[in-house]
Write a structure and sequence with these properties.
A 5-stranded mixed sheet has the order 1-2-5-3-4. It has helices at 2-87, 96-140, 164-167, 179-191, 217-234, 260-266, 278-281, and strands at 149-154, 157-163, 198-203, 243-247, 268-273. By secondary structure, the protein is α+β, with helices and mostly antiparallel strands. The N and C termini lie far apart (106 Å). Helix content is 61%, strand content 10%. Helix 1 runs antiparallel to helix 2 (96-140). It folds into 2 domains: 50-133; 142-279, 60s Ribosomal Protein L30, Chain: A (2-Layer Sandwich). 19% of the residues are buried.
């Protein structure tokens, strides 16, 4: 009788253990599905942001080419009209239609000249705004070690690159207390420019993730970017509509991952202040002359 009772109790224990394992497996599967969905969405947002940045760069290059072509056209028209006017010193020989044609041509030159000058002023204004932003950021972060933070302008965008050791512990996406000082100063400058939008990118070295809740370096870089974005939103009150978070994993290194120094340089978080060219390109909506 005792043997039968023991056997029954063993069966019950096995059954309970099986139920617990299935629940745990289901929970882990649900967690994985949620992370995978989040990762897919972030990658989609990041791809869209890159496409917009590349399109803006192409449009700026085209605009500069158009300005050059208009300058050449204006020079040609000026030289041509000067030659005609020099040849026609006696205006009495110019017919009414010829005089009207010359008048319209001169007006056309004037409108093209004004258009070119406005485009050039807009380009200079954009460059000046970027340089002013860089100066404000460098002034705000002047007490931070130069090797830990880099600020530069490239392809109409401002880049703020912050080293991994300033923000996170190794293999972690939890922002350190010491990093709040840096993020607070950056947020102050960004809050003073409410019209600009920016992308927060996470970057890692090529050391594989082993165990734990993180799946790989894609996962780590993405979580680090979203951690920074949440702090900028929740603690420093930046409008979330201005921000995009994305992970670049190990696939955009600054240096070779063959050395410890190279790995350290590649572990970084980058804030990319995107060029705001919408107002500038409105100048192109109505052809001039």
């Amino acid at each position: 009788m005792k043997g039968t009772t023991g056997f029954v109790m063993a069966l019950i224990a096995l059954s309970l253990a099986s139920c617990v394992s299935k629940k745990k497996l289901a929970a882990e599967q649900a967690k994985y599905a949620e992370l995978n969905s989040f990762y897919t969405q972030v990658q989609s947002d990041l791809a869209k942001c890159r496409d917009e940045e590349q399109a803006a760069a192409r449009r700026r290059a085209q605009l500069e080419a158009d300005i050059d072509a208009l300058n050449k056209q204006m020079t040609f028209l000026k030289e041509n009209n000067n030659a005609v006017l020099n040849q026609l010193k006696d205006l009495s020989v110019i017919s009414t239609s010829q005089a009207e044609s010359i008048r319209k041509s001169l007006e056309n030159i004037g409108s093209k000249d004004n258009y070119i000058q406005e485009l050039q002023r807009s380009l200079s204004r954009k460059d000046s705004l970027n340089m002013a932003l860089v100066m404000n950021l460098k002034s705000a972060l002047k007490d931070i070690n130069d090797t830990d933070i880099e600020i530069k302008v490239e392809k109409s965008a401002v880049y703020i690159s912050i080293s991994d050791k300033l923000l996170f512990k190794s293999g972690s996406y939890v922002v350190s207390d010491a990093a709040m000082n840096v993020l607070g100063k950056v947020a102050t400058v960004l809050n003073s420019k409410p019209d600009i939008e920016f992308l927060v990118e996470g970057h890692t070295d090529n050391v594989p993730i082993k165990g734990g809740e993180l799946l790989d370096n894609w996962d780590l870089s993405t979580k680090r970017a979203t951690s920074v974005v949440r702090i900028l939103q929740n603690q420093f009150k930046l409008d979330p509509r201005r921000m995009t978070a994305g992970g670049r994993g190990e696939y955009l290194p600054l240096q070779s991952n063959e050395t410890a120094a190279g790995k350290a340089a590649n572990r970084r978080t980058r804030i990319v202040i995107l060029p705001q060219l919408d107002q500038f390109f409105k100048l192109l909506e109505t052809p001039q002359g």
